[in-house]
Amino acid sequence: MLRRLADFTLATTCLLGLLYSSRALADINVEVSGVEPDIEQNVQIFLSLNRYRERDDLDAALLERLQERAAREVAAAMKPFGYYEPQVRTQITRTSDTDWSARIEITPGTPVVLSEVDVAVTGPGETEPDFGRIRESLPMRAGGRLDHGAYDAVKTSLQRTAATLGYLDARLTRNTLLVDPPNHSATATLSLETGKRYRFGTTTVDQTAINPELLQRFLRYQDGEPFDSAKLLRSQFALDDSQYFSTVEVLPGTPDRETLSVPIAIRADPVARDRYQFGFGYGTDTEARGTASWENRRLNTRGHRFRTELKAAAIAQSLEALYVVPIGDPALEKLSFALSAINEDRADLDTRSFEFEPSVTQVLGGWQRVLFGRFVRTTTERPALTLTPGAAPISITDTLLIPGISYASLPKGYLGEALFSRALYAELRGSAGFLGSDSEFIQLRIQAERVFDLTPSWHLLLRAEFGASAVREFSVLPGSERFFAGGDRSVRGFGFNELSPLDEGGSKVGGRHLMTGTAEVIRDLPRNFGIAFFVDAGNAFNKFGDPLQYSAGIGFRWRLPVVTIGVDIAQPLTNPRCRAALRDARCVSEPGFDKIDGPRLHLNFSPKL
């Protein structure tokens, strides 16, 4: 009996489920016309028709009640935009057994216009530039349409700015928005009394990772200075980016109304001393590549750190050890000692270098300056000039002492984080015989890159690189100091380091000078995809006036949380084997010199583990 009852219950449940699933949910398609997109969006939010969509109890009677509400809801949705007398026409039709269509046609009517706008700041803070900028760029003005959102935005901005700058007793003494709908006019009045400005009080610190004196140098404020919450936030960022701490809290305490001060409490937990990192990637320039590194982020309480890194790729291998000492402003300035061994293929040259480089990094205004000196012991191997099979390559070893200076532009608010791109970078370096160098030269290198947002979805990337050498005898300039062009971030369509002057034996041995440029238009696509169209130009050469090489192509981008994948297809427009212009008779006088190579694929991605 019990079994039959269970079977009956199961069958009944399945039948009811089938009946329920067979009943399709109703839907209402709501169309609003006659108003601007931002007003339409607000109307859609107010409409009950949208809130009742996909209800399973929709019928003609319910829709009639919703239709009656529509005019009132539209009127309420349009008041914040200054329209107090809209005319609304609503039509609801049935499109199927379960679906309905609602058309809302709106005639906005005459808008309410602001006849007077008065925004004032009084008190000790009335001359603050931040308040002045608010008043100079008001989103509402006399003669303009009333916008409640703009009024609220100005009010919020005044209050937020006062709190940020330490005017903690600020209050609105006038806060009125008077609307006269019959006469289509309104007046807006805001007056902020700032009160006295508070100052930074005593800072208490709870941490054991580094010396208290070193931590104080990370702070963007001093005790007794006028309070500014933006400086607190920048102090938190500076301590976070220092990599000495796993967690950092920089919190203001309860304001002291008598002393007009705000105490600050800082609590930080030390980060693990050792960090190991492994990464791999692939690029058409480097082919497969990998890195392995170990870093001691807290050698001592003075903030010294040590890092060693091994890099390996098909064209280059390196082992580097780096010792860093914080100096001055430790978030921005440091003394570094780098020791490295590098083996690199540069076109037809093979270079092996051992380098020691002390450097001092400082920040001056919006620029990062690096003073450095490089001691280099380098060996350059190049193919023999003779065409005799089996001829031994030429090997030259040089000792160089290269002092130099570089400047890099910094983004606003820079706090020492890694710079993955620089708007402008310039470096001047050189070597002289009286310093004990085997080669004498002076080199200037300039790199520039900037992205312009044409629209929210369209962007223009401009990139350029320039290099010039003044060298007494170019043949003795080591291969590690010569210029090459071509590759993923140079002139696409040509192989990595493919663009170079040739020696008497036809080998690519690098040039005195370098010039490359890129213009790329990028279109954002859904799901973090993007498409790019680009033109590249450039070359490495021995005298200015030598021809440049050109290419054009299309690229695809896929931005993921841990990797950005770039795929470019570039078509060369010129022949790198031709020293003259492509149409010059000298260029096509030999077989094969009149042909342009086919397109080249450039692939680059660098995930981190």
Write the layout of secondary structure elements.
Elements: H1 2-21, E1 27-33, H2 37-46, H3 48-51, H4 60-78, E2 87-94, E3 99-107, E4 113-122, H5 129-136, H6 148-164, E5 171-180, E6 185-193, E7 199-206, H7 212-218, H8 229-241, E8 245-252, E9 261-270, E10 274-283, E11 287-296, E12 305-313, E13 316-326, E14 334-346, E15 349-364, E16 367-382, E17 394-409, E18 424-431, E19 441-453, E20 458-471, E21 513-525, E22 529-541, E23 549-559, E24 564-572, E25 600-605
Parallel strand pairs: 1-3, 4-6, 7-9
Antiparallel strand pairs: 2-3, 5-6, 8-9, 10-11, 10-25, 11-12, 12-13, 13-14, 14-15, 15-16, 16-17, 17-18, 18-19, 19-20, 20-21, 21-22, 22-23, 23-24, 24-25
Helix pairs in contact: 2-4
Distinct helical segment count: 8
Strand residue percentage: 35-45%
Overall SS class = alpha+beta
- Rg calculated over all Cα atoms: 35 Å
Strand order of the largest sheet: 10-11-12-13-14-15-16-17-18-19-20-21-22-23-24-25
Main sheet properties = 16 strands, antiparallel, barrel
The residue-averaged pLDDT reads 89
Spatial gap, N to C terminus: 63 Å
Point out poorly predicted stretches.
1-24, 580-586
Helix content: 10-25%
Structural shape? globular
Let me know the number of strands: 25
Task: Describe this protein's structure.
- The protein is an alpha+beta fold and about 600 residues long.
- Helices cover about 15% and strands about 45% of the residues.
- It has helices at about 1-20, 35-45, 50, 60-80, 130-135, 150-165, 210-220, 230-240; strands spanning about 25-35, 85-95, 100-105, 115-120, 170-180, 185-195, 200-205, 245-250, 260-270, 275-285, 285-295, 305-315, 315-325, 335-345, 350-365, 365-380, 395-410, 425-430, 440-455, 460-470, 515-525, 530-540, 550-560, 565-570, 600-605.
- The protein has a 16-stranded antiparallel beta barrel. It has a three-stranded mixed sheet with strand order 1-3-2, with helices on one face.
- α2 (about 35-45) crosses α4 (about 60-80).
- The protein starts with a helix and ends with a strand.
- Residues about 1-25 and about 580-585 have low confidence and may be disordered.
